[in-house]
TrEMBL record:
<dbReference type="InterPro" id="IPR037523">
    <property type="entry name" value="VOC_core"/>
</dbReference>
<feature type="domain" description="VOC">
    <location>
        <begin position="5"/>
        <end position="137"/>
    </location>
</feature>
<dbReference type="InterPro" id="IPR050383">
    <property type="entry name" value="GlyoxalaseI/FosfomycinResist"/>
</dbReference>
<protein>
    <submittedName>
        <fullName>Catechol 2,3-dioxygenase</fullName>
    </submittedName>
</protein>
<dbReference type="Pfam" id="PF00903">
    <property type="entry name" value="Glyoxalase"/>
</dbReference>
<dbReference type="GO" id="GO:0051213">
    <property type="term" value="F:dioxygenase activity"/>
</dbReference>
<keyword id="KW-0223">Dioxygenase</keyword>
<dbReference type="InterPro" id="IPR004360">
    <property type="entry name" value="Glyas_Fos-R_dOase_dom"/>
</dbReference>
<dbReference type="InterPro" id="IPR029068">
    <property type="entry name" value="Glyas_Bleomycin-R_OHBP_Dase"/>
</dbReference>
<keyword id="KW-0560">Oxidoreductase</keyword>
Length: 181
């Protein structure tokens, strides 16, 4: 028994049409499906909603719900804004830079390019306030992933005891954080 892949990831949106148009224009995602009901199928409670689905590539689907009868959406005030996000992979650094320039030309504030060694990322917010990351692989990704794989259990086990960042992979963000390792 094994999971095949993510079927879809769902977020809440403020305005379904604005969300579809923004993801189409900014990230070139196709609008693939809309479902609207007056009752929630899983709970049967009366609550009108619009559920929309966008093509995030390779069978990945990004979905949103607009819930007009619910209070305005918020976020967990105890979780830093940089934690909750969705990340999409792009082909290479040239594509990442092309997206960065496109987003900025359309008035979207973009943070990065951030060097994560294994991959490189830009960050921005959609019109609903969700943080979005675009990431491209580093040319040396495979070798670095092998290094990370070799220490993952040691890191996890140490963290679970100490709740302090293990130093097994300090090299990962050394360039980005200007640290000598």
């Amino acid at each position: 028994m094994k999971i095949e892949q993510i079927h879809h990831v769902a977020y809440r949106c403020k305005d379904a049409k604005e969300t579809v148009e923004w993801y189409g224009k900014m990230l070139n995602m196709d609008f693939i499906l809309a479902i609207a009901e007056d009752h929630v199928p899983s709970t049967h409670e009366p609550d009108p909603y619009m559920h929309l689905f966008l093509d995030a590539g390779n069978g990945n689907v990004l979905a949103f719900f607009e819930l007009p009868t619910k209070p305005e959406m918020g976020r967990d005030p105890n979780t830093p804004i940089w934690v909750q996000h969705i990340a999409f992979k792009v082909k290479d650094r040239a594509t990442l830079i092309e997206f960065k320039e496109h987003l900025e030309a359309n008035g979207v504030e973009v943070l990065g390019v951030t060097d994560h060694s294994i991959f490189h990322s830009i960050y921005f917010f959609d019109p609903n306030g969700h943080r979005v990351e675009l990431a491209c692989p580093d040319p040396e990704e495979e070798a670095m992933l092998k290094r990370m794989d070799e220490v993952k259990w040691d890191m996890l086990n140490e963290w679970s005891v100490t709740k302090k960042a293990p130093k097994h992979a300090d090299w990962l963000h050394a360039k980005e954080l200007n640290k000598d390792i």
